[in-house]
């Protein structure tokens, strides 16, 4: 797969119907020169296949903690190199795991190992979004410095209107660029890359 010259960005995808909207984001990041690695939960793979993200990101998709590894576990190596980690969409279940420090899949384990900026973009039904447990978990994550990209209002997958729709690709892209320290890092990496070509 083609190596990209820019900052390394991790994109975690969890099991929401909004997962398909992350395809556009990954494609844009990759085209803009970011080195994008996608991590997926088992539930996310029921909505979008890893092959789709591999094609768009030009990198292998991480779907398991149980693949053969070198001395450096894959989730630790990815977390160490990342300039930013965005989990989009983030389900209520994922938010709860992150708030409690639970790590039982590639997405949450990598989040626990990461020291780069963490962006979380929730997507869920309005009734779930407004539940006190979700509100508490979001407050916990904010207190640790996590960037929460709030969902938009709109017509949801269930047909109702309200908050819970995944933020737009433009909004998420801007949050990632800011958190990753781009465009300075990206500009420098692209400049260095062009000298080698």
In short:
By secondary structure, the protein is an alpha/beta fold. It has nine helices and seven strands, in the order E-H-E-H-H-E-H-H-E-H-H-E-E-E-H-H. The strands form two sheets. Strands 2-1-3-4-5 form a five-stranded parallel beta sheet, sandwiched between helices. It has a two-stranded antiparallel ribbon with strand order 6-7.
H and E string: EHEHHEHHEHHEEEHH
Specify the CATH architecture. Answer: 3-Layer(aba) Sandwich
Which structural class do you get from the secondary structure elements?
A: alpha/beta
- Measured as a percent range, the helix fraction is 40-55%
The end-to-end span amounts to 17 Å
**Biggest sheet features:** 5 strands, parallel
Low-pLDDT residue spans: none
Strand share of the residues?
15-25%
CATH class: Alpha Beta
Query: What name goes with the CATH superfamily?
Result: Flavin prenyltransferase-like
CATH topology: Rossmann fold
The chain-level mean pLDDT equals 88
Structure description:
The longest helix is centred in the last third of the chain and has 13 residues, at 184-196. Helix 3 (74-81) crosses helix 5 (106-113) and helix 4 (92-100) crosses helix 7. The protein is globular and about 45 Å long. The protein has helices at residues 22-31, 50-57, 74-81, 92-100, 106-113, 126-129, 132-143, 169-179, 184-196, and strands at 8-13, 35-40, 84-90, 118-122, 147-148, 152-155, 161-165. The protein has a single domain, classed as 3-Layer(aba) Sandwich (Rossmann fold). A five-stranded parallel sheet has the order 2-1-3-4-5, with helices on both faces. It is α/β, with parallel strands linked by helices.
């Amino acid at each position: 797969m083609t190596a990209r010259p820019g900052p390394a960005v991790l994109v975690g995808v969890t099991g929401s119907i909004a997962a398909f909207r992350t395809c556009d984001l990954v494609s844009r990041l990759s085209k803009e020169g970011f080195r994008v690695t996608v991590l997926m939960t088992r539930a996310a793979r029921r909505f979008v296949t890893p092959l789709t993200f591999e094609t768009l990101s030009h990198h292998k998709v991480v779907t398991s903690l149980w693949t053969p590894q070198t001395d450096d576990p894959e989730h630790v190596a990815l977390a160490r190199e990342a300039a930013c980690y965005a989990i989009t969409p983030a389900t209520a279940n994922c938010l709860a795991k992150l708030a409690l420090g639970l790590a039982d899949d590639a997405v949450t384990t990598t989040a626990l190992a990461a020291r780069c900026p963490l962006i979380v973009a929730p997507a869920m039904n309005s009734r779930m979004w407004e539940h006190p447990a979700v509100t508490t978990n979001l407050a916990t994550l904010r207190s640790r410095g996590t960037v929460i990209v709030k969902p938009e209002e709109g017509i949801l997958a269930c047909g109702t209107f309200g908050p819970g729709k995944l933020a737009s690709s433009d909004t998420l892209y801007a949050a990632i660029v800011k958190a990753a320290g781009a465009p300075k890092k990206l500009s420098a990496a692209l400049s260095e890359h062009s000298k080698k070509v």
